[in-house]
Amino acid sequence: MNDLLKELYQEIILDHGQEPRNFGTCENHNKSADGHNPLCGDKVHLSFYLDENDIINDIKFSGEGCAISIASASLMTEKLKGMKLSEAQSIFNDFTKLVKGDADTLEILNDEDSLYALKGVEAFPMRVKCATLAWHTFKSAVENK
Length: 145
Prior knowledge:
The chain is an alpha+beta fold. It contains four helices and three strands. It has one domain (3-142): Sufe protein. Chain: A, CATH 3.90.1010.10. It has helices spanning 3-18, 67-80, 85-99, 125-142, and strands at residues 31-37, 42-50, 56-64. Helix 2 (67-80) packs parallel to helix 4. The longest helix has 18 residues, at 125-142. The radius of gyration is 14 Å and the shape is globular.
């Protein structure tokens, strides 16, 4: 990864970590879950409204954690809002592969996607859990766990 791209990705993570998008709780939600990473103390609460056509009409999160955890939740909510659930689940699969270092088998995401800002965590296995906390919380909400 070239230095300019690394710098851009760092700026995206810092921006979303300091000023997260979609922070709060959906007033009218029908899906929600809580996630916790006991290794570092990151916590996230996710709520969203899934309409009758399986479209995520609104999605928000709250919680506390490191910049990577907050930035990932913020980027996730931006990406998934307005999306059909089946596509969101495919993005979940691609994102978890991306941050675990298996970017060669992605189906939907490409290097122009803002989620690529978190690709660098693959070099830090302990940070993968920070980057995927909100995503696994999303999956738990979908599965009503």
